[in-house]
Amino acid sequence: MRGLALAMALACTGAQAAADTVVAARTVRATAVIGPQDVTLAPGTLPGALDSLSHAIGQEARVVLYAGRPVMAGDVGPPALVERNQIVRLVFRAGPVSILAEGRALGRGGVGDMLSVMNLDSRNTVSGLIGPDGSIHVTGPARASAR
């Protein structure tokens, strides 16, 4: 609907599109990896929407993408490497010291996403960034602020 409204607005004003907007060529379910057949370019620009097919293809849909609607930057992201409840390796590094442990992912995410994980030994919840190999690089436990 928004894609159609954008195209109609440009046609009514007679404005020439300076750039293109990525729109879904068909409905893509959330968590699906976007292929070349799933997206196309439409004339016009929309703030926050992707403007290049290369920014969408190979990414994972974070929400349902409806046919004809613009694909917004927050609607796609790197494909998930870690699934909810998956057993993952926790890595904590402080200078020359490395501590490795196993944890259970409390969510799903891709490379560079922040994820909460329960340490299986201590049952504490920690947060960390997902690495390219699927391990979680722990940033440290949450600390209560001093009052």
What's the helix and strand layout?
Elements: H1 2-13, E1 20-24, E2 39-43, E3 60-61, E4 76-77, E5 80-82, E6 87-94, E7 97-105, E8 109-110, E9 114-119, E10 125-130, E11 136-140
Parallel strand pairs: 6-11
Antiparallel strand pairs: 1-2, 3-4, 5-8, 6-7, 7-9, 9-10, 10-11
How would you characterize this protein structure?
There is one protein chain. The protein has 147 residues and is mostly beta strands. The chain has two domains: 2-77, Type Iii Antifreeze Protein Isoform Hplc 12 (Alpha-Beta Complex); 80-140, SH3 type barrels, CATH 2.30.30. The protein has one helix and eleven strands; from the N terminus they run αβββββββββββ. The chain has one helix at residues 2-13, and strands at residues 20-24, 39-43, 60-61, 76-77, 80-82, 87-94, 97-105, 109-110, 114-119, 125-130, 136-140. The strands form four sheets. A five-stranded mixed barrel has the order 6-7-9-10-11. Strands 1-2 form a two-stranded antiparallel sheet. Strands 3-4 form a two-stranded antiparallel sheet. It is elongated. The chain starts with a helix and ends in a 7-residue tail after the last strand. The model is unreliable at 6-17 and 142-147 (pLDDT under 50).
Key features of this structure:
2 domains, mainly beta, disordered C terminus, Type Iii Antifreeze Protein Isoform Hplc 12, single chain, 147 residues, five-stranded mixed β-barrel, SH3 type barrels, 1 helix, 11 strands
